[in-house]
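During the second year of the project, the team shifted from modelling isolated chains to modelling whole assemblies. The rationale, set out in the original proposal, was that interfaces cannot be judged from single-chain predictions alone. As a representative example for this report, we include one of the complexes processed in the last quarter. Its constituent sequences, exactly as entered into the pipeline, are reproduced here:
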Amino acid sequence: MAVVVAAMAGCTVPDRGAVALNEPFDPFEEENRSRHEFNKGLDSGLVRPLGKGYGWTLPDPVETGISNFASNLNKPGVAVNSILQADLKGLGQTVLRFAVNTTLGIGGIFNPADALGIPDHDTDFGETLHVWGAPEGAYLELPLLGPSTERDAVGTVVDVFTNPLLYAFKGSDRGILALMVILSGLGDRSQFSETVDSILYESADSYAQSRLIYLQNRRFKLGQGQAAQTGTDPYDDVYTDPYEDPYAE
Amino acid sequence: MQNKPYNRRSMLIGMTATAGMISSATPLFALTEAGATALVNSLVGEINGVIGSGKSESAMIRDFEKIFVRYADVSIMARYALGNDGRTASKAQLRKFTKAFQGYISRKYGKRFREFIGGNVKVRSTRKIKSGYEIKTDVKLRGQSPFEVTFLVSDRSGKDLFFNMFIEGINLLLAERTEIGSMLDRSGGNIDQVTAELAKAG
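Output from the structure prediction step:
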């Protein structure tokens, strides 16, 4: 924990008022952009074709099974973070879901919890840090992992090492679990192929688009989206200047 | 179209507004929460109608463009997306840009609507915001967990129209402002060039 606190203290914090509501705080833009180019090359050269192949070869039920399995593997970590956030409701849902899907769902391959109406609670250590009051920090694009922030990058590292399953399995079993997680990632790349392609390959500046989309969606999930949602009022933008009235034709 | 309840309603409001204009200088008419919700429901209904029509993609996109023009405050959206560079644009440039923007949005998002086949949109909550109302909806697509789409509706144009959307917190108008800002940067702030690019993009 001490390491985490130290890492958070190193979070870059923007000057008060220096960052407008919808302006990303991105002091490392140059480095981020070069990592973005690296990630994009990796996607077009490897991940995208693999995802396509994966989507074509495997029958849908197998893909769903792998995706369910990987999602179930993540639940012990979600439970740990729910405890750290003192979120008893989330904890209860997660424990129940993990128990049902691991047993009735045969190790998590099937998802009977959905049919039983048990909500799918999701959280991570980045959110725990947010709940504890840590600032978002600067925007980061991580190699391989993509868009993040200083706070979320710390969260990702902690999540990997605090997942109880990492310690419950050894040797080749651990390798199989890792493979399932990777395959599930390829499944996501294939399922959301059109969305990802349109951001990475069809936009004028894929770096700026991915940054905007990541930050807005992440803040929304952390419940910080409210202010931002109405913060940009296009009517304000125009009507503050009487000469700019588009209706005065 | 004439027998859509929403249109009949807005006609009634329009008549009341005319009466109000004659009698006094009080606010002409106000967008109501129910009116804003009806607009969103009617918009969703029309989009579903097109998705279910079985037409070709290009025919559907033409239909989406018509719906967009009827339900959205396109000029304010285009103006916002253009950002500060819009200030130096002539009226003719703005008109051309708006027209290109409208086609671009219809193609870009219209292409994706087939993912919504069999989907279901439910209004969850509404609240007053500065320029009108915010309508939150839950969208459920086949085989996916529900996600949130928020519509912002205003009558600042003189009609009840939507002027922005948020998909899981992602501000559509801001994303397009970023996109068009990048295009402007690349062209050295040349609006005509961006308009020409936009007419082909999406």
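Residues 8 and 188 of chain A are 30 Å apart (CA to CA). Chain A touches chain B at residues 22, 120, 194-195, 198, 202-205, 208-209, 212-213, 216-217, 219-221, 225, 228-230, 232-239, 244, 246-247, 249 (CB under 8 Å).
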